[in-house]
Amino acid sequence: MVESRLLTGHLLRRRTRQQEAIPDWALLNDMQSIAAWLETRLSAASSEILLENYIFAAGLWPRQILRILCDKALTGVAVYITLDALGSRSFPESWISELRQSGAHLHFYHRLQLKGLEKRLRRTHRRIVAIDGQWLAVGGFALDDEWLDAKPGSPPYRDMLFACRGALVDRGREIFFRHRPEHLPALPAGVSEEKEVFSPESWGEGRFLEGTPPASYAVRRRLLAAIRGARQSIWIATPYFNPDPVILRSIYRAVQRGVDVRLLLAGRITDHPLLRFGIQAYYQKLMRRGVHIYEYQGAFLHAKYVLVDRSWATLGSANFDFLSLWFNHELNLELRLARVSLLLHGLFVREFAISRKIDPEPWRKRPYWRRLPEWCLAQLDRWVQAHAMGQRRY
After folding, report:
1. Cα separation of 81 and 104, whole Å?
2. Among 61, 116, 214, 349, which lies 20 to 30 A Cα-Cα from 122?
């Protein structure tokens, strides 16, 4: 209990006014439930739908979502869709026409062109769904058949969605329209009056961590504060792991303080097999410093969430890698909800049990043909990070 209070005081020393009460919420950790929630909420929308995603690809399930969006727009619901121009490059032209003919407002974020290329290389990796100013959801899910049906013989991706009500919904609407050419519109007539008035009591508090490099590195800053303030445990789930040297040093120092540091990473089932070699290049040094590494089995782990001292959590779109923390636009929620922390702790325990724990001794004796691609990708990673950040201080 003392350690928990120390952590809370360290993390919330500044800018606590941004914390908002969360009167109602839902946490989903499998794609079938996520897909059902999305379809149900979108179908029930009566005034406004806001949807932003990195990937919206051609397929059967995305087609169902598209049909719902078009039908809602035709009935007069204000439908705004923001897609990353690179991540959603396979979005069919015929779907663009359908959306625009139905009256939906479609915007592609940062189409690639030579003018302002450095800025346009930054992607929006955010996932946002807001319904009628009542519900808002974030996570790592994408609108792609691979997430729901995966590949033949493989289960759906392991992902996560967190949805909530309350004041965070209004804040989320503001964040959504920062990637839009339009100004933030008022909610349609009557909606504001119909918004439910919640009891002063709530499940806990939360706030958005909006990473918008180079203007803001809020996701990285808060993760670093959590790692430095940890007293008992740091458990991290992420499909991609290649943070900058300062975060790595903070992790090593946490282990030296006696903190239980565990990483839950994607296993042999992954969307980037080559990239996995680069991630595994970190294993030996991490384990030598006392970090426990688990590789998720049976499905592709695409969820991104962190639990510190069983009292502070963050989840959303940000991976624990250089691109998410320094380059792309990301959106996470920082949560202080006791029941969410309890659920995430139980989820971690369950997934550690079904994952492969990397044994340091056999790993040290792995064959040289495995070490060579790891070494090559590690050198490339260091070069990219050094040249991308130049002389900038961490």
Report:
1. 8
2. 61
Indicate the DSSP class of residue 334.
E
How far is 84 from 57, CA to CA, in rounded Å?
A: 11
Cα 83 from Cα 69, distance rounded (Å): 14
Instruction: Find, among 322, 326, 327, 236, the residue nearest to 286 by Cα.
Output: 236
At residue 13, the pLDDT reads 44
pLDDT at 20 over 60: yes
Cβ distance 238 to 267 under 8 Å? no
Rounded average pLDDT over 332-352: 96
Three-class secondary structure assignment of 265-279: EECCCCCCHHHHHHH
Lowest-confidence segment of 27-41, 105-119, 220-234, 339-353 by average pLDDT: 105-119
Q: Kind of pairing, strands 233-237 and 330-337?
A: unpaired
DSSP 365: T
Q: Which amino acid is at 138?
A: V
Based on the number of CB atoms within 10 Å of its own CB, is 108 exposed (0-12), middle (13-18) or buried (19 or more)?
Answer: middle
At residue 331, the pLDDT reads 97
Kindly write down the DSSP assignment for every residue of 62-117, as one continuous string: HHHHHHHHHHHHHTT-EEEEEEETTTTTT--HHHHHHHHHHT-EEEEE----STTH
Tokens describing residue 118: 């450095």
pLDDT of 49 = 98
User: Distance between alpha carbon 174 and the CA centroid of its chain, in Å?
Assistant: 18
Residue type, 207: R
Alpha helices in the chain (DSSP H): 2-11, 31-44, 60-74, 93-102, 117-120, 145-149, 167-176, 191-194, 218-229, 245-256, 273-280, 283-288, 322, 338-354, 360-364, 368-389
CB-CB contact of 222 with 160 (8 Å): no
Q: 370: pLDDT confidence band, cut at 50, 70 and 90? A: confident
Structure tokens at 37: 């929630």
Contacts of 29 (CB under 8 A, 6+ apart): 158, 159, 160, 303, 347
- Peptide bond preceding 373: is omega within 30 degrees of 0, i.e. cis? no
CB atoms within 10 A of CB 46: 16
- 18 vs 157, residue with greater confidence: 157
CA dist 243 and 326 (Å) reads 9
Average pLDDT over residues 239-251: 94
Amino acid at 231: R
Average pLDDT of every residue of the chain:
89
